[in-house]
Amino acid sequence: MASEQKTGINIEDEMRSSFLDYAMSVIISRALPDVRDGLKPVHRRVLYAMDQLRNTHAQPYKKSARVVGDVIGKYHPHGDASVYDALVRLAQDFAMRYPLVDGQGNFGSIDGDAPAAMRYTEVRMKRLTSELLADLDKDTVDWTPNYDDKELEPSVLPTKIPNLLLNGAVGIAVGMATNIPPHNLREIVDACIALVDDPKLPANRLLQIVSGPDFPTGGQIIGRAGIRQAYATGRGSLTLRAKCTIEEDEKGREAIIVHEIPYQVNKVRLISHIAELVREKKLEGISDLQDYSDRTGMRIWIQVKRDASAQVVLNSLYKSSDLQVSFGVNMIAIAGGRPQVLSLQECLQHFIDHRRVVVTRRSRYELRKALERREIVEGIGVAIDAIDRIIAIIRAAPDPDAARVALCAEPLHGFSGFLARCGRPEAEVEAAKGKPYHLRPNQAKAILDMRLQRLTGLEREKVEAEYKELCATIAYLESILASDAMLMQVIRGELVGIRDEYGDDRRTEIVDDESEIEPIDLVADEPMIVMLTNNGYIKRLPVGEYRVQGRGGTGVKGGVGRDATDFVVELFEASTHAHVLMFTNTGRVFRTRVFELPAGRRDHAGKALVNFLDLRDGERVLGMVPYRDEDLEGGHYYVVMCSQQGYIKRTALDEFANIRSTGIIAVTIEDGDQLIDARLTNGKQQIMLTSAQGMAIRFTEDDVRPMGRTARGVRGQDLREGDAVVSMTVLEPESEGSILTMCAKGYGKRTAASDYKVQNRAGLGIITIKVTERNGPVVAALRVDADDHVMVVTSRGKVIRTTAASISEIGRNTQGVRIIRIGEDERVVAVERIVDREEEAGEEVGEAAEASAGDEPAGDEGGEE
C-alpha cells in the first residue's frame, strides 16, 4: 500500500502573506482617505446612506440611530460605535473646517465632552454636502457590491469640492499614518481654477494662492517654512499657536485673554495643565485663571501678577503649555489604488482629473438621455401631424401590442414640416422632404401612452419647444465631449460657482517667524539706479534722486570716483529684489542682490567691489545683468555676452542659477580681448553691435547657438584695424522706437530702429553715426522710446537725466546734436535708458537747455556703407 504524501504550509510565508493582506485591507478600506473625494469608506457610506434616506439639508432631521442602522445593515460590516463616531465627527464644527453633517443635540465639545447616545441626537446633511453627491445618479462613478452582494455602493463620490484639502484627514494604518490639515475653500478652489487655466503652473505660484492651512478653531501658524516644505514634499511640521491678547484694567493690572486655541487641543485639559504648572511653581507670574467661554466665543482669562510682565508670562505659556503645539503634516492618501505621499499640487491635480472623468461621464449620460428623449418627442410631433391616421390604426387594433406593431409599420408623412417649425437647419429639412417616417417601438409606446390634451395647439407648441431645447442641449453636450478646452471650461465654471456660493474668510492667521525672516523680506521692492565706476566702486540710489531736465542741461552730480581719474562706466535700473550677475574682464561672473549693494549718495563714489567680491589682481567688473527669480522658470531666457574684439556668445540663464561666492567661469576670453557687455534675452530677439568708429550690425539671436559657460563664442562683428565694439543692444524682431547713439564729446542722436536692416552676423555692418573730431568716438548705443528718460554720465561724475523725445531723431549718416555740455578734459562715459513715465514735482530745467534748444543736426552729408 502506497503511503500518502503529506503537504504542509510554511508558517513564515503564511504569516507574511496574511499580514500583508490585512495591512492592505486596513490601508485601503478603513484608515486612509481617497484623494478624489477626501473620504474614508465609512464616511462615504454614511453620506451615501443619508442620501438614500433623502436626509438632505432641505428635509427634517432623522435620528442618528436610523442612519447608523442603515450604514451597518447595508454597507459597513463593523460595530455601530465606530460608525456613530464617524458620523459625530462629520458634524463637529471644531473638528471639521466645513462640517458635512448638520447635527441637532449634543455632539460633543472642544472641552472633550462625549456626544449623547445616537438614540438622542438627530442629523441631516449640510447644504455643502449635496455638492459631494451631485450627479451621483448620472453614471458618473463606478459602483461596487456591498459586503453581502445585495446592494451596490459608490466606490467614490462625484464631488464638486476638493474635500481632501478642505476638511483634511486623520488616520492610522499599518505602517503608515495620514495627517492632512484643513484649508480654506476659497483659496483651494482658486488654486484649482489656476491649475485648470495653466496645468503647468509653477509650484511657487500655488503658494501665492494657498497661503497655508486654515483650521476650524482659528489660532495662528508661526512661520512659513513648514508650510512650504509640506506643500512641496507632502511632509512637514507646523507650529500652531493660540490667539491671545493682553488687556489692562482700570487699576493697571494686566491679563492675558485667550480667544482661540490650536487645532485638536482640548480646552479643559489645557486649563488644567496651566493650573498644574502654577501650583507646582513651574510657571511664575500668574495669580488667577478663569474660563469665561460661552456661546459667543472662547475667553480664557489669565490674571498676571502686579510685579510680572504679561508678555514674558505669555512667552512662558507658549513654551510650556499647549497654547503652542506642533502639527505634523503627512499628506498620505489613496491615489490610483495605492497609498501615496502627495504634494499640494498633486492633490489638486488628482481632484481636477477626477472632475474631468465625472463631467465626461455625466455629459455622456445626459447626451444619451437627451437623444432618447428627442426621439420620443420627435415621434410625438410627427404623430400629432398625422393624428387622424394614428387614431384609425389604434381603433382598428385588437390590443395595445398589435397597435404598437401597426404604428411601427405605418409610413407617416410631415416630418420635414415638423423639423421646419422646430427651426432645424435647412439642409436637414430638405433631406427629410418626401421621405416616409417610420415610428420606432419606443415612440409607438409613447404615442399610445399620450393623453388627448397633447393634441391642443398649446401642447403642440410645447412639443416643438421641447424639441428645440433638446437639440440645443445635445449640441452643447457633444461640444463638451469633442473639445477638451470646452470640458475644462465647464469644470472651471462649476468651481467658480462653488467658490462664490460657499467661500468664506480665513480663520487661521499666518504670522512670520522672526527666525525665518530673510533679509530680502525686510526690503521694499522698489526701483534703483546701480552705478559702477572705472576703478571698481559701486553704489545704488533710488531712481527718484534724479529730476527730469531738458536736453542740453548742465546736469546734477550723480556719481564721482575716488579721484579725478575715476569715472562711472556702468549704469542700469533694477529693483531692489533683483539679482545682479557681475561679469568681469577675465570672463568670470559673480552674483548678488541689488539691495545687498551699498547704498550711496549722488556725490559719493560708493564702495569698492573688492570688499565683497573675490576679485583677482587686475580683474574688474565690466558688465552687469539684472534679473528676477521668475526669469529662471521655464528655461526661456539667455545671457548674451559680447567681447571688445567682436566675439558673441549665448548661454542659458539657468546655468548661472548657482554661483558660489568665489565666482564661476562665464566665458573664455582670449589674450588682448575683454568682455564689454552682457544682456538678458528671451531667445527670440535680435542683437545689434556698435563699434567706436560708428559701424553697426544687426542680426537675429538664433544666429548664435546656445553654448556652455566655458565656450569663447563666435564672431559677431568684423572690425577694421583700430576699431572695437563698444556697445551691444538687444532688439525685438519688429522693433519700433529708435536707436540712441552717444559720442564721447556729448553729441548724440536718435535714429529709427527700422533703418537698421537685419544681416548675417560676422559682417562689418552699416554706418550708424558719422564719427568726427566734433563729436568724438561712439561711447554707447541703446534702444529708446520717445517717452523714455535717458541718463547720461560724464567722466567727472556729472549726470543729466532727460526725455528721449527731447533728442532729435535723424538719419544714420549724421553727427547728431548736443545732449550734454562737457568740459575740455571731460567726456561721456555711460548712457542708460530709464523706464519711468512720472516726472517729479519741481522739474528742473537748466539754462543750458534753453540755450541749446535751437541746435540743428550736423553732418547730414555722406553715403551709407
TrEMBL record:
Residues 838-865 are annotated as: Disordered. InterPro entries: GyrA, GyrA/parC_rep, Gyrase/topoIV_suA_C, Topo_IIA-like_dom_sf, Topo_IIA_A/C_ab, Topo_IIA_A_a_sf, Topo_IIA_dom_A, Type_II_DNA_Topoisomerases. The keyword Disulfide bond does not apply. It catalyses: ATP-dependent breakage, passage and rejoining of double-stranded DNA. One of its GO terms (molecular function) is ATP binding. The active site is at Y120 (o-(5'-phospho-dna)-tyrosine intermediate). GO terms for biological process: DNA topological change; DNA-templated DNA replication. Keywords: ATP-binding, Cytoplasm, DNA-binding, Isomerase, Nucleotide-binding, Topoisomerase. Residues 32-522 form the Topo IIA-type catalytic domain. Its EC number is 5.6.2.2. It is found in: Cytoplasm. Its main location: cytoplasm. GO terms for cellular component: chromosome; cytoplasm; DNA topoisomerase type II (double strand cut, ATP-hydrolyzing) complex. It holds the Pfam family DNA_gyraseA_C. The keyword Isomerase applies. SMART domains: TOP4c. Residues 838-847 have a biased composition (Acidic residues). Few gyrases are as efficient as E.coli at forming negative supercoils. Not all organisms have 2 type II topoisomerases; in organisms with a single type II topoisomerase this enzyme also has to decatenate newly replicated chromosomes. Belongs to the type II topoisomerase GyrA/ParC subunit family. Heterotetramer composed of ParC and ParE. A type II topoisomerase that negatively supercoils closed circular double-stranded (ds) DNA in an ATP-dependent manner to modulate DNA topology and maintain chromosomes in an underwound state. Negative supercoiling favors strand separation, and DNA replication, transcription, recombination and repair, all of which involve strand separation. Also able to catalyze the interconversion of other topological isomers of dsDNA rings, including catenanes and knotted rings. Type II topoisomerases break and join 2 DNA strands simultaneously in an ATP-dependent manner. This is DNA gyrase subunit A. The lineage of its organism: Bacteria, Pseudomonadati, Myxococcota, Polyangia, Nannocystales. The gene is gyrA.
